[in-house]
Amino acid sequence: MKHRKYEKMISKHLDGRLAPEEESALQRHLAECPACRRRLEEYLLIREDLSAEIFPAPRDFFWERLEPLLRQPEKEGLGTLWPRWGLRAIPVVLMIGILWGAAVLVFAPHPALELSQTGVLLLENRNPFQDTQLILEEELPEEQNMMLIFSSLENHESTWR
Amino acid sequence: MLMDDKKLIRSCLDGDRNAFGSLVTKYKVKVFNLTYSLTHNRETADDLAQEVFLKAYTSLPSFRFKSGFGTWLYRITVNHTHDFLRKAKKMQTVPFNDERRNEKTDTDPLDRRIQADVSQRRRRMVRQAMRSLPEKHRTILALRDLQGLSYEEIAKVLRIAPGTVDSRLHRARKLLRIKLAPLLSPHGGDI
Q: Which residues of chain A carry a pLDDT beneath 70?
């Protein structure tokens, strides 16, 4: 575990990216750890070999071969127009949409406000269901019975007299 | 970004193709070396480098001058080469052991000529070991240890965090070391 930690530090050490205190900690560890010293040597050797890589040159007449390809007229299709204009078009379209929506809300003619019968009753602080309630109440069987009883009593009184 | 590059790009956007020619002259070796590092084939690397510049030319109007032209070009190079490798399935996975077998039969401690040849052979084996690495590790090694890009530049090219550059680079180097361990040390291998 400890070696792994120092191996990672070796990698950063190769690129000169260790903080001064980390660097001194690594140097202290290297002084007493032959395995990590060997690791450092291996990494140095690999890096030396990589940096010594000899690259071939590109083929001759690189620009001369490339230049005619640049001259070919670019086909203007949606595929080529999109990267150039697509992203710029998005905010423009959004702005147009917002302005149009706002214009519709502000300038569109509103229909005249007409209150319904219920609305009028509510404004007058009257119960719109009053008539219905009366009818329902009259139709209650108990009420009807009571009405019958009262009417019968009235009939009795009239006969005694 | 260098002032020269900015001027050249602006001239190029104004229709001056020769300005782009100057950019090509300036960056062609770097682009070619990167494509070569990832493909290890001169013809393929050359073709890819041409395609990269063609792509850069057509995409130049979308260049925002936020990053350096070189970084932007490297990003195109890496993406284009990766696309090519994926499509062509030309991932270079040369069997590393074959080369090592030859190495053992050739080494004779008394032969001075062979001794002088050891470092050259080792370099070849390092290249082959690198080819056998996964694409992302090969790319980061190519950018750092072959092209010499800074961590910050690599982060921009690969669009990853600098911390990820750090850990991925360490992983790539470690993988390479493990692959080369038998060659580097008789006690090689992971600690």
A: 1, 73-84, 110-113, 135-140, 144, 154-161
Any B CB within 8 A of A5 CB: no
Q: Which residues of A touch B147 (CB under 8 A)?
A: none
For residues B56 and B132, state if they share a domain.
no
Instruction: Give the pLDDT confidence of B43-77 residue by residue, as tens digits.
Output: 999 999 999 999 999 999 989 888 889 999 999 99
Structure tokens at A131: 């008539």
Considering the domain architecture, whether residues B127 and B52 belong to the same structural domain is answered as no
Q: For residue B136, what are the CA distances in angstroms to A100, B72, B127?
A: 49, 18, 16
Instruction: Say if the Cβ atoms of A11 and B170 lie within 8 Å.
Output: yes
The CATH number of the domain holding residue B123 is 1.10.10.10
- Measured in angstroms, the CA of B156 and the nearest CA of chain A are apart by 18
Nearest to B24 among A39, A51, A66 (CB): A66
In a domain, B190, yes or no: no
Q: What are phi and psi of A126, to 5 degrees?
A: -115, 150
Residue B87 has pLDDT above 60, yes or no: yes
Instruction: Name the domain count of chain B.
Output: 2
Q: Do A65 and B50 touch (CB under 8 A)?
A: yes
Which CATH number goes with the domain that contains B67? 1.10.1740.10
Which residues of chain A have a CB within 8 Å of the CB of B188? 42
Q: Do residues B187 and A35 make contact, with C-beta atoms less than 8 angstroms apart?
A: no
- Whether B170 sits inside 8 A of A15 (CB atoms) is no
A1 touches chain B (CB under 8 A): no
| Confidence grade of residue B23 (pLDDT, cut at 50, 70, 90) | very high
Domain that residue B103 falls in: 96-184
What was the ipTM of the complex prediction?
A: 0.75
pTM comes to 0.65
